[in-house]
Specification:
With about 130 residues, the protein is mostly helical. The protein has a two-stranded antiparallel sheet. It contains 5 helices and 2 strands. The chain has one domain. Helices cover about 80% and strands about 5% of the residues.
Length: about 130
């Protein structure tokens, strides 16, 4: 990795981590479902979907992928926090909420990525 590539990666990572911290610093629960992690995962997936289309459409330099996809979206979204929330629900025998948490994080994140790609495809193709 060259120096400038590292700067792009680091810049995106810092920005994504800061945004994740700000969104998740105050626990937000819907009943017993932790939604902070769900929010960052869905937002990050939507942004990644939109970025993929923009990157392909406009042939972005690979450094922008390091910044946006790997750095920013990688630091914004969080599989480890999702796993921790899910494990805590499991340990507290909250099986229904656990199932909702898993389905919401996985399903909505995939849906958001598809939505981001679809929206950006519609924008760039018009």
């Amino acid at each position: 990795m060259k120096g400038l590539e590292f700067v792009f990666l680091a810049g995106g990572s810092v920005f994504g981590a800061f945004l994740r911290y700000k969104i998740t610093e105050s626990p937000l629960l819907f009943n017993t479902l932790p939604v902070n992690v769900l929010i960052v995962n869905v937002i990050g997936s939507f942004i990644l979907g939109a970025f993929v289309v923009m990157s392909q459409q406009w042939n972005f330099d690979s450094r922008y992928s390091l910044f946006a996809a790997v750095g920013f979206c990688g630091s914004l979204t969080t599989m480890s926090a999702f796993a921790l929330d899910s494990t805590n629900l499991l340990e507290n025998s909250q099986y229904g909420t656990l199932a909702i948490n898993i389905l919401a994080n996985v399903g909505l994140s995939i849906g958001a990525l598809i939505g981001g790609k679809s929206l950006m495809s519609a924008i760039v193709n018009n």
